[in-house]
Structure formats: structure tokens, C-alpha cells
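Researcher: Here's a chain I'd like modeled. Treat it as a single chain, no partners, no ligands.
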Amino acid sequence: MMRRILMTAVASAAIGIATPAIAGPTLVQQTGPDLTTKIYASGDNGVATVGTTVFGNTSNGAGHDTPFTGYTTFNTATNVGTTTTIDITGGNGFAQVEDNSFDQQNTGGQDDLFYLIMNPTPAFYLYEFSVQTLTGGQGISIYYALTSAPNTWILATGSPINNGNGDTQYIFGDASDPSLSIDKILLQSVSPIEHVKQNSIQLTGTFLPEPGTWGLMLLGFAGVGVAMRRSRKSKPALMQLA
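Model: Modeled as a single isolated chain. C-alpha cells:
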């Protein structure tokens, strides 16, 4: 009897541990699976779309629901900046946003993309990306604005990134809080941004458990199942003793 109670307690504790703690939105290196909502280049057909604002979409038929705007300078207090030309193409199913001048370096282009705003129509709580700059991904910070205050930029915990190389993926947000509602993202770099790729988001209200959370939950449920099975087997023996 005591052993059964102890097993049930351990299983319940495992389930309790599996409940994610609210850590708040943070910028960290991504080590898990990709997010479920990829951002695609809208209607590129392999040809770059060019402008100060270019568009992606979160699904086929979604239209231009994810604008990207490039800036040479940008003031997060006043939301005013100097725009610069960028382009967008599809790369491995993801939108890849580039400094248009970087593609034209051999023809006298000047690298001047230091700020990039991504502003999807659907609210989201996680953002995944990788970024390359002229210095290999050093000194990149993320700002975010909540849907409740879309004109107020907040510097993300974990900024700046100091070990990016263009292939390292990062994720921003709080995986334990799908109710978090982010309106838009601002990438800021101390050196010109060459490109931003692997763009994907997790929509608000869609929970994405971490691998460790799944493992602890399964352990907890297995423990409860074993305890219940042992309990059923012991009842006939107790009746015979009576």
C-alpha cells in the first residue's frame, strides 16, 4: 500500500514538473524543431521582389500578410526612420529577406540595412530566424511590440546576439505562454545586415510543448498507469483475506 502511494506521488510530481514555468519572452539559440507557421515569399516564383517594404505570407492564399520593411536608421522612441531598399525570395520554403545593395556590391551598391521590421497580420508568441551580417552575426538585438501596445518597442531579454554566423537559428518568445500576443518584431544590427532567413512564427493560442516537457508528461502518465494497475491486481487478494 505504501509503495503504491509513493509511486503515485512520484508520478504526480513528474506531471507537476512538466508544467512549464512562465519565463517571459527571451531571445535564445533554437535547438528544437522548427515552428509550425512558416513565412513564405509572396508570389516570388524564384524572382526577388524589391522595395523598401516587401511581403511574405503565412500560408497559400493568405496574401501579403507579413510585410518586412528595411531601414538605414530607426528611432524606437518615435517610430521614425530612413528606409532602404530590400528584397525577398523563397529559400527552402522560407522567406529570405536581403539588403538589396548587398546583391549589387560589384556594381557600386552600398550596404545600408541596419534595421528590419517584420509585422505579420496574425498575432504570434514565438519567432524563429537566422541572420547574417558583414561581421558574421555580431551585435544583433531584437525589439518587440505587443498587440496591446503596438507603438511601444521593448528590448528583448537575451539581446544582443554575439555568436551568430548566418546558419545559427534563434527563437524569441516564451514557449510556455501561448497567450502572449506579439504584434511585430524589430531586428537591429551594429553592422549591415546581409540577409534574414528561416523566418517562422507560432500563432498565439497554439501551444508548442518543449521536448523535455513531453518526456516528463509521458513519465508521469506512465507512473500513474502502473500504480492503478497494481491497485486493481491487489484488490482480489485483499478480499480473500477478508
